[in-house]
Amino acid sequence: MKFRFITPKLHGVFDYIAAVNLVVFPFILNLGSYSPMALWFSVGAGVGLFIYSLLTDYAFSVSGAVPFKLHLLLDVVAGAAFIAAIFIFDFQGLAAAYYAVMGLGVFALVAVTNTGEDSMPVEIAA
């Protein structure tokens, strides 16, 4: 099996599932009891993911305005923001664990997503 086995279409399905989870789970987990930012940062990220997913050039979007590789770069930035948020906002306990899992999950999804090319999914020009 290839290391990059997630197709752009399947990645899109995961994006919409993740967007809903990013909005719903902070309420279920009561992250607001740790910090209002722990709640609202995730909700904002979920709304943002939903919007740029709707605009990405893949199945289930309404527009192909965002190239898929740019979408993956935005995903990497979002994953890094989740990890950084732990330290920036001093999240503790469940809130810190939630953001660590979400950030690492985004990195993992990007790592196994196939762009249809042999190159890395996200290339950074030197």
Oligomer: single chain
Low-confidence stretches: 118-122
Structural class comes to: mainly alpha
Mean pLDDT: 92
What topology emerges from the helices and strands here?
Elements (H helix, E strand, L loop, with lengths): L7 H21 L7 H19 L13 H21 L4 H19 L15
Helix pairs in contact: 1-2, 2-3, 3-4
Task: Tell me what the structure shows.
With 126 residues, the chain is mostly helical. 63% of the residues lie in helices and 0% in strands. The N and C termini lie far apart (31 Å). About 4% of the residues have low confidence.
From the structure above, extract its key features.
single chain; 126 residues; mainly alpha; 63% helix
Describe this structure in a few short sentences:
With 126 residues, the protein is an all-alpha fold.
